[in-house]
User: What shape does this take?
Amino acid sequence: MTSITEATQAGTVRVEVDGPVATLILDRPAKRNALTPEMLSQLDEHLALLGTSTEARVVLVRGAGEGVFCAGADIGRFAGLAPTEMWRSWTTLGHAVFDRLASLRQPVIAVLHGNAFGGGLELALAADFRIMAESAIVGLPETGLGTVPGWGGTERLVELIGPARAKEVVMGRRHVDAATALSWGAVTAVAPAERIEAAVEELVGQLVGGAPIAVQLAKQLINAAAEGAPSRILEPLAGALTAATADLAEGIEAFGARRAPAFTGS
Assistant: This one.
């Protein structure tokens, strides 16, 4: 298996690795990081590699450039698609890639240092956490183009903020500022632009401080619970799995010795 640290830096979606943190970067700033089919395919390839990585314990998603996380789908790339092409390739590919992001074992943080619209917001909604700059705005403006969100935005937004507010964002094309997004529960945290990196580092530190296997199992348990799976069945199974890890023994020993645990993910 290729190491995540050997992942290609070419293309318009890059991976950078810093210790236990892997960062996916949408790198098309001249086009406001607008998503193309090629970018979706590159993102999918990187996610497949991250999904098998034991090195990466937290995944960040960022957009390159100033003032924008991602402007959404590249309109020029889907405007001329035939209905069957839109169905078979464009929307289906986006759903598959964003679902892969949402189902990563590792916790995923979308860093909204700038605006996120359409497919860009849908990408962020597929993450576990969203940290948003105070100056940023988000929205799903597709109905103003004569179409609808196509990459899970209606479902994931309803899960976070409820159907009435989701209708306001989608049907009413409301641009949502950071304070409103936080109060609605659409984002996890808001920070001034100059402090957003500190907010990211704080959350990363909290996530990395837990035992990797336990953190990843906890994510899967919570996701399963959101879909109605019974905790009385899944939690005992997950707990039994953690009992077989060296990290549980290390955590118990460190607790007794009143020291910080040194988890290895084994």
Strands lie at 13-18, 21-26, 58-63, 68-70, 108-112, 115-117, 129-133, 137-139, 176-177, 189-191.
